[in-house]
Amino acid sequence: MPNLLLLTLLAAFPALSTDMYLPAIPTLQKIWNISLPEANLSLVIYFATFSLLLLVHGPLSDRFGRKPVLGWGILLFIAGCLLCACANSITTLVLARMVQATGAAAASALSLALAKDLYEGKERQKVLAYIGVILPLCPMVAPMLGGIMLKYMSWRWIFVSQGVLALAGLYGSLRLKEPVFERTRGGVLSVLRRYKVLLGNRDYLSYTLAFCIMPACFFAFIAASSNIYIVGFGMSEQTYGLYFGFNALCMMAGSLLCSRLCVGYSSFSILVFALAGMLAGGIGMVWTAGATPVLFMLPMGVISFFVGLSRPISNNMVLEQVDKDVGAASALLTFAFFICGALAMVLISFDWRSKAFVIGVLAVFGSMLPLLAVLFLESRRKREVAG
């Protein structure tokens, strides 16, 4: 399996295990007679578990190698999928999703670490952009597949199909040649102490904190989209899949543009442009408050486009700040990214008068704060160079 395809598949594990399942949330609410916040626990707890386990898998891969950690993680993911398919209550489903999240964390953390191991500089940025082009296919196609399965089969087959798809990742991990990198030493506690070294890296920490809040609005959209489109606007699961897929298409277009722009333009200029565009989309969402399906879909599409444009550059900027402890650095970055997403999912689950308005507010703050931080960091870097 080509490295680019494997990295894309590994990066897709969180979306694979979430987006296909989204159309089933209203169905589970009816079957188990539960509220939306209760149903969304299967999303929130998943991302919380996923985020915490990232911090374990990353440094373990620095100590023991990428392949063993990756293979074990994918096997856990497959086991979690089968347990989800057998769940008979929201409690058992949440517990099964925790197993699934444990495995997905290994795949997601190591996708960035392997990108750092296998590629350098501009080539790495282009690879991350190409992954960003392919990756949105998952959230674009997955809800539609989930909707089709709900129409003709039980919701349980959604999780069975996820386990089957994960077998391709397991095959790729077995075929992968272990990258050469400087490994850490010591036991588990010594491995985990490497985070102290990372937290002392001022530039790495600054960029991580600046970029982790950007996609909070998109996570809120993931958690609330089925409620907004299916319950709020009365759409079918299949139509919802098409509307959801539009946002994934916009994100794909943003990443495709990034792969073209990164050749002739500076990363800083592209990132500032992307954050400004995301801010404009957030203001549009706040202004319209998603009054109609189109007025919700269009500003969300703008936000998704500029999130797709910014992610490859922001990830590459963070990775460029480290030469050692790459697994831990990748894990901490992904942890910060998803823990902000989990908090956004909790926030959007409350009974807001307009969930679209809340998503717009998250987009405004999720673009404005990183924009100010990036401008400040760039100004500081220039002063240090001049001094």
UniProtKB/TrEMBL annotation:
It is found in: Cell membrane. GO terms for cellular component: plasma membrane. It comes from the Bacteria. It holds the Pfam family MFS_1. InterPro entries: Efflux_drug-R_Bcr/CmlA, MFS, MFS_dom, MFS_Efflux_Transporters, MFS_trans_sf. Keywords: Cell membrane, Membrane, Transmembrane, Transmembrane helix, Transport. It is a multi-pass membrane protein. Residues 3-381 form the Major facilitator superfamily (MFS) profile domain. GO terms for molecular function: xenobiotic transmembrane transporter activity. Its main location: membrane. CDD domains: MFS_MdfA_MDR_like. The chain crosses the membrane at residues 41-57, 69-90, 127-149, 155-174, 204-230, 242-263, 270-288, 294-314, 326-350, 356-377. PROSITE patterns: MFS. The keyword Zinc does not apply. One of its GO terms (biological process) is xenobiotic detoxification by transmembrane export across the plasma membrane. SUPFAM superfamilies: MFS general substrate transporter. NCBIfam families: efflux_Bcr_CflA. Belongs to the major facilitator superfamily. Bcr/CmlA family. PANTHER family: CHLORAMPHENICOL EFFLUX PUMP RV0191, PURINE EFFLUX PUMP PBUE. This is Multidrug transporter CflA. It comes from Oceanidesulfovibrio indonesiensis.
